[in-house]
Write a structure and sequence with these properties.
Chain lengths: 248, 309
């Protein structure tokens, strides 16, 4: 079985994003970038499927600038067999990303597309669902458990109020949630090996899909700051203060 | 402008997220129809009673009741021909099917809006709520998901007509196997006026239940948790507040033993009043807390319980 894992290079999750003074976006120059945490979980899951003998070929795909090669090398150090960078110097909308990935899926014909439920920069939570729709494939989002056997995937999903289990026919798109697994740290030998694994680069324009933006960003601003709070001396003080502002 | 609002409901009851999404619909302006889709569509009566609704559509099938995205796609994509805007609350279910519909309509979805600036211009949080993006969408058709906690619920007093429509077909390629709901008699986390949340400092599930639950019960509050507490198994997944869990905006949020990572703040920093109880005076949570109490929860929570009387 062949697994396709889309991965995104994003601002490191520990870094607090700063809005640019001209309100054109978030400051990304000289900021630490990493693989999106949800994508890392998807790569780990694909690698585990490979180790179980369920998957034979794991292809990591990223759409982004030259530097996204590092993200793909990270994916290969975890366990992806090969990588494809669709080079693009602007940040594409989820619909455009889904269209580009659809073109890749049509060429590569994966049995399963495993991907993160959302990227921690745009926080859209949309690409996986859009990709499934464009391909006409079933989807299982927010997966916290995935079992693949006999041309089907049984997926436990995290939903409001608890968990839901679905069975979907392959090919399918599964988006992963935080609790699916704990991604391994890439070992130094695996990082070295990943440098030798094949990484193909082509411009996203070569796919022949329309990736033009449909939305325009008017501005990006800082959220309103909360006014500085006060320290309380004890329970009685706290309760009195909460009563005085009317929340108790 | 005609707006189709997809209702959030369960077991015949309309969730208040629907009334909040209706407020966003009214800010966009136009005729609003509410779609109640599921296996039990009794919530249509409550939806029809919301003020300012043109009509309520009901579509009933088991696949819709199971929340299968493919079934929602089959129902809503043809229906969207009659509407300019499809508005969906950002619940786990809404997030599941809305992008499917957007892609089928060849529309860029505007996700998780917190403000309507103009009928085509919206504000949405990005980077875990550390920035607010104002986006304009010139698309002829819009698919928008709405963060319910950012809007006040619309009032009742309406009497819209209810009309049953064909539920459409589902996909043969996805099947519901089962579900496991977390049982709780407490108010729902997303809708509660008071939320008491526990973090990693609690140390065990037993301690979490022994410390957080009685305080929540005393305050009539919902219980939340940080990701660290959930990952450590102290609380179920469903309790998680944050970028990857639930976004809450209660009147009062009490964070106990929670350091205040960016991802947690993304889920609660719009609360009206935030109280932090933490023994580390340097914990980032104190930067957003209106009332900070530097104390060990082991002594602080019992003191708070007795001060509440």
């Amino acid at each position: 079985m062949k697994v396709l894992v889309p991965v995104k290079r994003v601002i490191d999750y520990n870094i607090k994003a700063r809005v640019k003074a001209d309100q054109s976006g978030v400051e990304l120059a000289n900021v630490k970038m990493s693989i999106n945490p949800f994508c890392e979980i998807a790569v780990e899951e694909a690698t585990r499927l490979r180790e179980k003998g369920v998957a034979e070929d794991v292809l990591a795909v990223s759409i982004g600038p030259q530097q996204a090669q590092e993200t793909l090398r990270t994916a290969m150090a975890i366990g992806a067999d090969r990588a494809l960078l669709l080079q693009c110097d602007t940040d594409l909308e989820p619909l455009a990303v889904a269209k580009a990935l659809k073109a890749v899926a049509e060429t590569e014909k994966p049995d399963l597309i495993l991907m993160g439920k959302q990227a921690i920069d745009g926080d859209n939570n949309a690409v996986g669902q859009m990709l499934a729709a464009l391909l006409g494939w079933p989807q299982a989002t927010f997966a916290s458990k995935v079992e693949v056997a006999g041309g089907k995937a049984t997926v436990t999903r995290e939903v409001d109020g608890g968990l839901q289990t679905l069975e979907i026919d392959l090919p399918a798109v599964v988006t992963v949630d935080l609790r699916l697994n704990e991604p391994r740290y890439a070992s130094l030998p695996n990082i070295m090996k990943a440098k030798k694994k094949p990484l193909e680069i082509k411009p996203v324009g070569d796919l022949g899909v329309d990736v033009a933006p449909k939305l325009s960003v008017v501005k990006v601003t800082e959220p309103p700051k909360r006014s500085a709070g006060v320290k309380v001396e004890g329970a009685a003080d706290l309760v009195a203060k909460l009563k005085s502002v009317g929340v108790l | 402008m005609a707006i189709l609002l997809v209702a959030d409901h369960e077991n015949g009851e309309l969730k208040d997220t629907t009334a909040k999404t209706l407020t966003a619909a009214k800010a966009i302006g136009g005729d609003v129809d509410i779609l109640v889709a599921g296996d039990n569509v009794d919530a249509a009566k409550a939806a029809a009673a919301l003020a300012g609704v043109r009509k309520v559509l009901t579509a009933s099938s088991p696949a819709l009741g199971q929340g299968l995205a493919e079934a929602f796609e089959a129902l809503i994509v043809p229906l969207a021909a009659n509407y300019d805007v499809v508005l969906v609350p950002s619940t786990s279910q809404g997030k599941n099917f809305a992008p499917r519909i957007a892609a089928k309509l060849d529309v860029s979805q505007v996700s998780d809006i917190v403000e309507v600036v103009a009928p085509d211009t919206f504000v949405r949080p990005i980077y875990a709520g550390n920035a607010l993006e104002t986006v304009r969408s010139a698309q002829a058709k819009q698919v928008i998901t709405v963060r319910p906690t950012a809007f006040k619920p619309a009032e009742g007093g309406g009497s819209a007509a209810i009309e049953a429509i064909d539920a459409g077909a589902g996909s043969a390629h996805s099947r519901f196997v089962g579900e496991e709901k977390v049982k709780s008699d407490r108010p729902e986390l997303g809708a509660a006026k008071i939320v008491v949340s526990g973090g990693r400092a609690l140390g065990s599930a037993e301690e979490f239940n022994a410390v957080i639950d009685p305080l929540a019960d005393k305050l009539g509050a919902a219980v939340g948790a940080s990701r660290a507490a959930v990952d450590a198994g102290y609380a179920p997944n469903d309790y998680q507040v944050g970028q990857t869990g639930k976004v809450v905006a209660p009147e009062l949020y009490i964070a106990i033993g929670i350091s205040g990572a960016i991802q947690h703040l993304a889920g609660m920093k719009d609360s009206k009043v935030i109280v932090a109880i933490n023994k580390d005076p340097e914990a980032p949570i104190f930067q957003v807390a209106d009332y900070g109490w530097v104390a060990d929860y082991k002594t602080a929570v019992p003191e708070l319980m007795s001060a509440l009387g």
